[in-house]
Amino acid sequence: MALKAVVFDFNGIIINDESIHEKLILELLLEENLRPDRSEFQRVCLGRSDRVCLQEILENRGRYVTEEYLSSLMQRKAQAYQRELERLEKLPIYNGLNEFILKLRVENLKLALVSGALRTEIEMVLDRIQLKAQFPVIVAGDDIVTSKPEPDGYLLAVDRLNEVYPSLNLKPSECLAIEDTPAGIEAARRAEMQVLGVANTYPAHMLQRQVDWVVDYLAELELDRVRHAFETQKRIPLDRSEKLS
User: Fold this and answer.
1) How far, rounded to the nearest angstrom, does the alpha carbon of residue 147 sit from its chain's CA centroid?
2) How is domain 5-16+94-243 classified at the architecture level of CATH?
3) Is the pLDDT of residue 153 over 80?
């Protein structure tokens, strides 16, 4: 078995914008005459789509959530997100991202992106940092009904990569997913992908038992070791992982 593709998460892997999302969700709750709760955001929203995040928070507060109501809230939040990023002279992109992507491209690995974020948000960021062309496959939150930790987004990414590259014959087991939250990690594992955990949102020791490999920064990944593990079909069990540093 060979490593053929690398599938990125977006928030927390490409852009360090969790604090922006938290601010906007809490502001949205205030506008809806609901008391914001930071601990609830951390518990309910990290690694999950805005749709699922908002629906669960509102239902927990006793609100009746119609599809029209939910779509309206998501649209308001998306517009606020765009305004927030437009105010920033430089986007909070993680250090070493461009170099890491170049390393993957040199190795002829195919790239995809799977996120609960809306496509407009993802493409706005990728356009601005000039990386959109590097991701021929993007599965966004508005492409699927479910959210991480469900594996649907990752499985759809494999299907779409096979459409873009018909001779690839890609299987989920030939993909490395890059994630930073337990929900995302579970989604990738349920899709039968190997997972690299990056300690951008949670400390490495919290991710270590959930992933195949863990690093503090993307630049620390020793790609040769990962490729060798794929080729020898060596997979780290769920109860332990290897720290690549």
Assistant:
1) 11
2) 3-Layer(aba) Sandwich (3.40)
3) yes
